[in-house]
Amino acid sequence: MRTDRRNCLHDHAGQRRVQRRPVHRRQNYPAGKTPHRAASVSDVPKSHPRYESLRLREAIVAGVKRGVTSEHGLIAHGRGEAYDYLLGEKTHDFALAAIDAAAQLLTSASHPVISVNGNVAALVAADLVRLSEALGAPLEVNIFHASKQREQAIRSCLQKHGAGEVLMPSTDAELDFIDSNRKYVHPEGIYKADAIFVPLEDGDRCQALRQMGKAVVTVDLNPMSRTSRAASITIVDNVVRALPLLLESLRGLAADNGRHSAEFDNLAHLAAAEREIRSQGS
């Protein structure tokens, strides 16, 4: 039956005068001798309008290869990149106001903690270490997709960039109001914290932390996400731009002896971000 069908196909090809071409099998080339390779950001000139975006993509891909970032993190990054595109890939006034408010909240906290997942470690590990030093706040690894190996890879990544002790999740302490892997936290870290900086957070844990009475500062490019709406302060900006600005704001606070501004209205700032996104299509 298969032979007949193959003959029919050959006859049909002949009637249509289709030229049969030999199939060339892929050759194994010696190292460094491959005629073609995938393009990397090093092949893209810095003048390219998408250079920075491509650089960040490559950083996330490198994070996956090092075991720091989950493959699911690629999808999350792509979603954020789309919102950043709509925001013009720049930091707006509403984000600057949120950054200043975040600096004040974190410095006034009695026990601030910085929560780190794979995407954040791949993108801004050095800035996280600087933030930890500026606040005197511990870094704590916390990921959604359970993996001891990846937790260790994130800790190693942070330590490579100068971190000292990095807290790890423990079954000795669990958050209330959540059932995912992210409920496991360090008893002297997130569990004990009164304020937590959680860039690129997932909504269910942000809601759980708020229900437990903890202040949450997050960085999220989607002003309509559960995380953005549940957080105490949401910085609607790309984390690679927001972290250096947050460090700058902390230095300014120190110079001004901890100045205080008016109370921050998170929902009003989210509305401003949403208007900016919607205006791009009008």
Structural commentary:
The chain is of the alpha/beta class. The chain has a domain at 93-279: Phosphopantoate/pantothenate synthetase (Rossmann fold, 3-Layer(aba) Sandwich). It has helices at residues 2-15, 51-65, 71-86, 93-108, 118-135, 148-160, 203-211, 226-230, 239-255, 266-279, and strands at residues 112-116, 139-141, 166-167, 170-174, 184-185, 195-197, 215-219, 233-235. A six-stranded parallel beta sheet has the order 3-2-1-6-7-8, with helices on both faces. It has a two-stranded antiparallel ribbon with strand order 4-5. Strand 1, helix 5 and strand 2 form a beta-alpha-beta unit. The relative contact order is 0.13. Residues 5-18 have low confidence and may be disordered.
Which descriptors apply to this entry?
282 residues; alpha/beta; Rossmann fold; 6-stranded parallel sheet; two-stranded antiparallel sheet; 10 helices; globular
Work out the radius of gyration: 24 Å
Shape: globular
For this entry, what is the oligomeric state of its chains? single chain
Figure out the total of helices.
10
User: Overall pLDDT, averaged?
Assistant: 87
Order of helices and strands: HHHHEHEHEEEEHEHEHH
Identify low-pLDDT runs: 5-18
Biggest sheet layout: 6 strands, parallel
CATH architecture of the domain at 93-279: 3-Layer(aba) Sandwich
Q: State the name of the first-level CATH class of the domain at 93-279.
A: Alpha Beta
